[in-house]
Amino acid sequence: MRSYVLRQSRITPAQELAIQQHWHRFGIDYQPQTLDLSQVFGRSAPKVLEIGTGTGENIVALASRHSDNDYLALEVHTPGVGKLIRQAVALNLSNIRVICHDAVEVLAHQIDDKTLDQILIFFPDPWPKKRHHKRRLLQPEFVALLRRKLQDHGRLFLATDWQDLAEHMLRVCDAEGELFNLAGRGNYSPRPKWRPLTKFEQRGRHLQHQVWDLAYAVNG
Length: 220
Prior knowledge:
Layout: H1 13-26, H2 37-41, E1 47-51, H3 57-65, E2 70-74, H4 78-90, E3 96-99, H5 103-109, E4 116-122, H6 140-149, E5 150-160, H7 163-175, E6 179-181, H8 199-206, E7 212-218
Parallel strand pairs: 1-2, 1-4, 2-3, 4-5
Antiparallel strand pairs: 5-7, 6-7
Helix pairs in contact: 1-4
């Protein structure tokens, strides 16, 4: 069961043109075979994966601030991919790539075990209705998959502005035996200083929405 619904969002001409002209530079086609990420980026550097990139605001900010890291974005919505690529072109970023495909299949088939230094999942769909909770991305099987893709001592960072989802993620991740809660079992983490404050989060702050951060390391 997928954790997302493909909405018929309208892609702008500029976003579509960015994909057409620059996909060869920033895009990676989904194929059920393992990627050599060092070859993809043309260097050996820490690899950071963001799942559910949206319009790319967060990962583009990180890639521009931390040129010593390589960033791989996963996003299923084409307009968001187009906007991400437009931003990457404007900033002439060489350390960012994007795959427009389901994260579960990408992780299962394209990403080798123990290859990622960090995985970021910020503000995933909360699926607030109880009957939809089974659609939430952070389920035990998926967390175990994430853990396998992280290197020893790799980091998993999560954030949400839905308390019920925060409690669900904390419960599921704390139950994964090979992940260590950096704030202590049962605790949320302080907001990482390096995490960009996006427009989405700024709107939430204006509405006095609380944000819960979680941070885990792979035991190894």
